[in-house]
Design a protein that fits this description.
The protein is of the alpha+beta class. It has helices spanning about 5-10, 30-40, 40-45, 45-50, 75-90, 110, 115-125, and strands at about 20, 25, 55-60, 100-105. Helix content is about 45%, strand content about 15%. The strands form 2 sheets. Strands 1-2 form a two-stranded antiparallel ribbon. Strands 3-4 form a two-stranded parallel sheet. It starts with 6 loop residues before the first helix and ends in a 10-residue tail after the last helix. The relative contact order is 0.12.
């Protein structure tokens, strides 16, 4: 997110996640958009939306902080992860099509653990008695 995106990469992202400056297009909202998203009721509590998911879904939970988080943010992240576990894990108990996998990585897990993520996605099969080839 510290570098401008290529035109092709920017085209793959929702417009609301992009910030355009004289230096290029970035995958990071400005302060006004971040505040708008932060206080939008749609983004306040995603657990009800997750509970309504009917298709197979795999949630990957990072267990590490991003390096260099400022001030108290780093200290708050374990509490955020604990809240996610508290609220999300019970949903999977009676919904075999939903799965939560914790990875020893940060929010940048796609760059840090691409093989593990690919393996998790390929192996995610919500059918209780599914056979894998």
């Amino acid at each position: 997110m510290a570098y401008p995106l290529s035109e092709a990469h920017a085209a793959m992202l929702p417009q609301r996640t992009l910030r355009t400056t004289d230096a290029g297009v970035y995958a990071r909202p400005d302060a006004a958009l971040a505040g708008q998203i932060r206080y939008d009721p749609y983004f306040q509590d995603s657990i009800p939306a997750v509970a309504d998911i009917q298709c197979p879904a795999l949630f990957l939970l990072a267990t590490e902080n991003l390096p260099g988080l400022p001030g108290r943010v780093g200290a708050l992240m374990p509490a955020l992860r604990a809240g996610i576990r508290r609220d999300l894990l019970p949903l999977t108990a009676d919904r075999p099509h939903l799965r939560v996998l914790e990875l020893p990585a940060s929010h940048n897990m796609v760059a840090e653990r691409p093989e593990e993520i690919a393996r998790a996605v390929r192996s995610h099969d919500p059918r209780p008695t599914a056979r894998r080839a």
